[in-house]
Amino acid sequence: MKYIYWVDSLSNPVFPPDLEPDRDGLIAAGGELSERVLIEAYSKGIFPWYNGPPVMWFSPDPRLLLYPDDFHIPARLVRLLRRQTFTVRFDYDFSRVIAHCAEVPRKGDAGTWIDPQFEAAYTRLHRLHLAHSVSVYQGDELCGGLYGVSLGRAFFGESMFSLKANASKVALFYLVEWLKKENFHFIDCQVPTEHLVQLGAVEISRTSFLDQLARALEYPTHNYCWRHPLT
User: Are residues 86 and 170 in contact, defined by beta-carbon separation less than 8 angstroms?
Assistant: First the structure.
């Protein structure tokens, strides 16, 4: 059985550069979800998933990326956007967005990894303007959204939800428009899903991903409150 690195949150660095994932993408275990640990993890292509305890850290190979210019807009979504049924806001309702991501069932998922510890950790990142949300409304009703982490010109998508059909796709469309405007390189979708592949996401090797991540991190982080991308 492959040895899994046990995280010491006080070490520097927290994640040594020579770590290699197992066949499931697991690269480390333990530690905490502090801002310092999370920022280092994301900057090295590592993310937490399925909190036990202990926290389990992943860096899968291959990796699923969505390049903003390659986003495929389904015809149904085009028609929905033209009807202007929804209102979209950035960084407006983060706590409710992450709570719904934890609560709303997703196809193929038996449960959620977003427990109160995760919610608290990413809310702290949000207060630092490193975690961002896109929320979608019909009238005053929150009906979809997503959240993720931003470092340099990389956006790490964490989770999305829909309470009404295609609401999460609306959130993703507006996120992509924002990322295009700000010259982001990619959205890290982490692991393949049929849904994201249909929207234009592609699998690349972990080595290629880490190279692209390093280039994206050469740019300053957009650590401020994001605004609606089309205004």
Answer: yes
